Amino acid sequence: MHAYSVHDAKTNLSRLIDEAVHAGKPFVIAKAGKPLVKVVPIDTPDPVRPIRIGFMKG
Q1: Do 41 and 21 contact (CB within 8 A), yes or no?
Q2: Are 36 and 29 spatial neighbours (Cβ–Cβ below 8 Å)?
Q3: In the chain, at which end, N or C, are there fewer CB atoms within 10 A of the end residue's CB?
Q4: Which Gene3D superfamilies does the record match to this protein (predicted)?
């Protein structure tokens, strides 16, 4: 897991979030060399299609 300074994270936040989401790579944001937060992608289930009962009924 890679650690970024607050300044680097601010500068590259969009790219870091894209990496976390698409590549599944969490990262840490540190200040003065001390880890502050860990950014981890959320596992979201595939959306469930609602069951439409009777929509083909005549």
Answers
A1: yes
A2: yes
A3: C
A4: YefM-like domain (3.40.1620.10)
For the stretch 27-56, pLDDT in tens is 999 999 999 999 999 876 667 777 777 777
Q: Is the pTM of this model over 0.70?
A: no
Give all domains of the chain, ordered by start, each with its CATH number.
Answer: 2-39 (3.40.1620.10)
Using CA of residue 3, residue 9, residue 12, residue 15, what is the dihedral sign?
Answer: positive
Identify the burial level of 9 via C-beta atoms within 10 angstroms of its C-beta, where 0-12 means exposed, 13-18 middle and 19 or more buried: buried
Assign residue 18 a region: left if phi > 0, alpha if psi is -120 to 50, beta otherwise? alpha
